[in-house]
Amino acid sequence: MKNKNLLLLAALGLFLLPGCDSDTTARKQKAAEQSTSAAQQIYVPPGKLDEYYAFLSGGQSGSVFVYGIPSCRFIKEIAIFEPRAGLGYANNPGSESYKRLVATGPMWGDTHHPVLSQTDGRYDGHWLWINDKANDRVAKVDLRTFEVAEIKLVPNIQGAHGLAAYLPSCKYVFINGELETDPAGNSTDAAKYRSLVAFLDAQTLETKFQVSFVGNADIASSGKDGRYVFMTMYNTENATTSEGMIERDRDAVGAIDVPLAEKALADGKFTKVNGVPVIESEKVPGVLTLIPIPKNPHGCNVTPDGKYILASGKLSPTVTIIDAHTLKVIAEPEVGLGPLHTTYDGRGNAYTSLFVDSQIVKWNIEKAIKGERDYIVDRVDVHYNVGHTKAAGSDTSHPSGDWLISLNKLSKGMFLPVGPGMPESQELIDISGEKMRVVAAFPSLPEPHDAVMVHRKVLENVVVQTYEIQPTAVKLGEEKIVRNGNKVDVYMTCIRSKFVPEQFEVHEGDEIHLHLTNVETVRDMTHGVAFSRMGINLAVDPGQTAETTFVADKLGTYWYYCTWFCSALHLEMRGRLLVKPPGAELNEYLGPLAKADKARNAPKKGSAFE
Ligand code: RUQ
Ligand code: CUA
Ligand code: CA
């Protein structure tokens, strides 16, 4: 009996194995073909440009990462809340960027939500806004230079989280205070806790007014017609423990009526808290409408046509569809476990990230509203535990429906192991067809919460090639040293491959104000200047003038040298700061082509270089 069975198994095995083999071969072949075609889709040959810019929030890097799509090539880090010596940003006391940053908080940040400016429902390529959740700041980046143009602290809130532009005008950006506190700031009494949504002038980032209420405000999205802005609220319990925050089965989407808030402001129906007008929702009926939805919701996203607001259930497997005008819940389709964020292709489909299922689910909005059973169109596995997801142009009125980024919280074994801490993982998904197709995965630093993609055409005539010469620029041939007591202004230029002056002298304890202009007119000819052991490093792009202030507090010779490899004479591009004892006689700088310089540098009689 036993033997018989073994024989049978052996026979089955013999019979089955070849079948298995050819099956595996076919599958392997299909997989190989698929990777080849995916590779072709994302292959952008060296020297060719990508189609899209993707701006990923840098999370705890305090920055914004710029990638090219579809190649997934990393192009730039826009340092915002953290200094970057290599970019000459914010690490030099006395520089504008340093002053602006330290005036608003610490020199680090936690960026979450990059937002692009729009005109007529399309990205206009002017501004990118981003929040710092940890220190309650909002910054504005100028897309001509990819540099920070403004940073402001938002008063009265904690946990500056959801950020969006008020549409269609973009006259405000609004930021949600996720972490409840007493707005006046002094009380520890939880019964006084409220949350606030702050409306900031989109240009100056001054807080114009705030709306306060009991509960919290997580993710933000704007209606398209200038009436409501929306937020999800997961802590309507106003609890202070995680258990308390999940007590209710339903929390809410909040809708703020912006024109009504503006009217209340004009009518004086507010109290000033720390100089900011705060409208208490209880005192202005209609200014805040709460729409109950299940349970600890997270993302909310208005559809491109402005008809609906979709809010993700997070602890409920549903997405709630709310009419963005009547504020009525009209459907609550089930989509999968842990829905967090939804994005759109402009063809009536929603793509929802499922954190627990590690999937993106594509579903048809109208079918779900009509209760048709086949509203789920497709599901695709992502790796792993996706948070945000964003399709190109999804928050405009005209999504392009071609690419989608899945921003995954865990990368597990996706990349070479680099110790216990792993990078985050993003995946690029082709959504142009009926079925989604994951075509690439690429790592980045922790953690890109959210992303926006803009077509390169939008920025084509926006991004500048070289800086316009500023009024404060130092002109070639007009370099000079100006002493005023112990303050020394050094007006310096640099051009391949020389700093002018190449030497200057100060007394120990003098305060040096360096004004350095890169007088190159050629694009991409960046120079840098690092002062050895003085803690100074600046980068200066062509046409740019950088400034910094430092104290020469040690006697001796300190070389300053170029930090960007710029020419065959890059290493020779250096000069000396000579710090002499107080009272010592100083040689005055005699101008760029001073005879003394020439004589000193002339080869000595009999030297090997004669
Ligand atoms: S959050 S994973 Cu900061 Cu945008 Cu949703
Ligand atoms: Cu200038 Cu290297
Ligand atoms: Ca809750």
Structural notes for this entry:
This protein is mainly β. The chain has a domain at 480-601: Cupredoxins -  blue copper proteins (Immunoglobulin-like). The chain has 7 helices and 40 strands. The strands form 9 sheets. The protein has a 6-stranded mixed sheet with strand order 8-9-10-11-16-15, covered by helices on one side. Strands 31, 32, 33, 35 and 38 form a 5-stranded mixed sheet that branches. The chain has a 5-stranded mixed sheet with strand order 34-40-39-36-37, with no helix packed on it. The longest helix is centred in the N-terminal third of the chain and has 41 residues, at 2-42. The termini are far apart. Residues 1-19 have low confidence and may be disordered. Dinuclear copper ion (CUA) is lined by residues 497, 527, 562, 564-566, 570, 573.
Task: Describe the structure using short key phrases.
globular; 610 residues; binds (dicuprio-$l^{3}-sulfanyl)-sulfanyl-copper; single chain; binds calcium ion; disordered N terminus; six-stranded mixed sheet; Immunoglobulin-like; mainly beta; binds dinuclear copper ion
